[in-house]
Write a structure and sequence with these properties.
Elements (H helix, E strand, L loop, with lengths): L2 H36 L15 H11 L10 H18 L17 H22 L3 H32 L4 H6 L6 H4 L1 H14 L11 H4 L9 H26 L16 H22 L5 H29 L1
Length: 324
């Protein structure tokens, strides 16, 4: 790689990471507004017009809050756990193509790369639960380890059908393979499994058992405060963006949109972002609608329903491809 290519790559990293961080700040605002209106409330209203400056105020507050560290904690692991989670999520951005020809790294194993980093992100939660020396945090970490193992298998299997249809694990190739129709119509079962597994992977309701406040106070980050808590917060919402982007690329045609009339002049990145934000809105809708699962129900759903269904979907997809 020459100097020009290196500088261009660094510029892309800077732009993509900073845009994502702004997204993380305002998707929290968006969630509070959406859920507020679903519950006949207004959400944030006081800081700025209709609360638009609330994310900035929250960030400043977190930055200046006292950083409390439990005296009996495993300090080196306690320090590094939230950083691992955020770095793993931000690294996943490298293979997300925002439009054709624009990605930080165009890997042939893009899907496998994202799945591998989602596994690394799980270590953040497990280590935070262990290092805090708190029963609540430890139970949250244990729940997360079992939950990630269960639903990561289901998620990976749900994407096998997509890779079979596209003939590639490259995310750009997968989008191009949907030129004649979204994979949602060919893989509806896989899409359902992926959506549910993505919610479990990102610890979102109704699968937010690792941080169940009614049982574990705040779960794995009970003992965290200040910006260390903020790092977990950023990692969760950035993870929602990554999973929504992966679902959009694999099932909703990525950046493709209508190519007639005024729609043909809309930039490709706009179509991708609209689909991603639609998926994120679905996260919020589910949170405001469904109660939290019991832990035994969560594990049974993963092992007894999603994994067998995903395996059956692979078999059916293979048979259909051979038949054709």
């Amino acid at each position: 790689m020459n100097v020009t290519d290196m500088l261009w790559t660094l510029l892309k990293v800077f732009i993509v990471v900073n845009v994502l961080m702004i997204h993380v700040a305002y998707v929290v605002y968006f969630e509070r507004k959406v859920i507020g209106h679903m519950q006949a409330r207004l959400g944030p209203m006081r800081v700025g017009w209709h609360g638009l400056l609330q994310p900035i105020a929250d960030g400043i507050k977190l930055f200046f809050k006292e950083d409390i560290i439990p005296s009996q904690s495993d300090r080196p692991i306690f320090y590094i756990a939230p950083i691992i989670g955020l770095v793993a999520v931000l690294s996943s951005l490298a293979v997300i193509p925002l439009w054709e020809g624009f990605s930080i790294a165009n890997l042939n194993i893009g899907i496998l790369y994202i799945l591998a980093l989602s596994s690394v992100g799980a270590y953040s939660i497990i280590l935070a639960g262990w290092a805090s020396n708190s029963k609540y945090s430890f139970l949250g970490g244990l729940r997360s380890s079992a939950q990630v193992i269960s639903y990561e298998i289901a998620m990976g299997l749900s994407l096998v059908g997509v890779m079979m249809l596209a003939g590639s694990a490259n995310l750009t190739d997968i989008v191009k393979a949907q030129s004649e129709g979204w994979f949602l119509w060919y893989q509806p079962v896989a899409c359902l499994i992926f959506v549910m597994s993505a919610m479990a992977e990102t610890n979102r309701a109704p699968f937010d058992l690792p941080e169940a406040e009614s049982e574990l106070v705040a779960g794995y980050f009970t003992e965290y405060s200040s910006m260390r808590f903020g790092l977990f917060f950023m990692a969760e919402y950035a993870g929602m963006f990554i999973m929504s982007a992966l679902g959009t690329i694999c099932f909703l045609g990525g950046w493709s949109g209508p190519d007639f009339g005024i729609f043909a002049h809309v930039p490709k990145v706009v179509w991708l972002l609209l689909k991603i934000y639609g998926c994120i809105f679905f996260y919020f809708w589910i949170r405001a609608t469904l109660p939290r699962y019991r832990y035994d129900q969560l594990m049974a759903l993963g092992w007894k329903v999603f994994i067998p269904l995903a395996l059956a979907n692979i078999v059916v997809t293979g048979v259909i491809k051979l038949w054709k």
